[in-house]
């Protein structure tokens, strides 16, 4: 009888100890979860504050008008390609940008790029979106009303067959047909000018590309 009671007592103590250990484990988990939640909340507040500050800054910038892009000038090489003399900025902005060249070859730009997977646009596109395409390694073919219909058609066909290119009219540009890449630009005499193929070969996803391999789809389209 006494032996049975001792056995029962030991068994009860063992169960109590097991319950205590389980409770202590739950308390530890609870403390860890509480600390983790607190850290997440604090991090969220900090991130939220930073986002609010940045948003206010962007709003202030947007309200202040156009932004000036990088200063500099073109330097023309022996091959006829003009290269921008200074490093071009790459900030994402929500406002328009006053570029020091037309068409622009780089500088601050909108966070959304123009689709440039052989896309041909029949209407003018926004510079701030096209510049983002150049940042991704695209070549931008532009023309004005002085370009012949035959040249426009031939260039359109070439662009449509070439990933990382886009084409659009730019009436204010200096010459009838121009080719632009990030930091580089040249004029060509016609669609049959051999410099068209040379420019494509050199600058489509060329060494000048700030973000090689970045998307030319899922952006903006007309």
UniProtKB/TrEMBL annotation:
Superkingdom per UniProt: Bacteria
Transmembrane region(s): 32-53
Region (Disordered): 1-28
Protein keywords: Membrane, Transmembrane, Transmembrane helix
Database matches in Pfam families: DUF3105
Start-end of Basic and acidic residues biased regions: 1-27
Protein name per its UniProtKB record: DUF3105 domain-containing protein
Phylogenetic classification of the source organism: Bacteria, Bacillati, Actinomycetota, Actinomycetes, Kitasatosporales
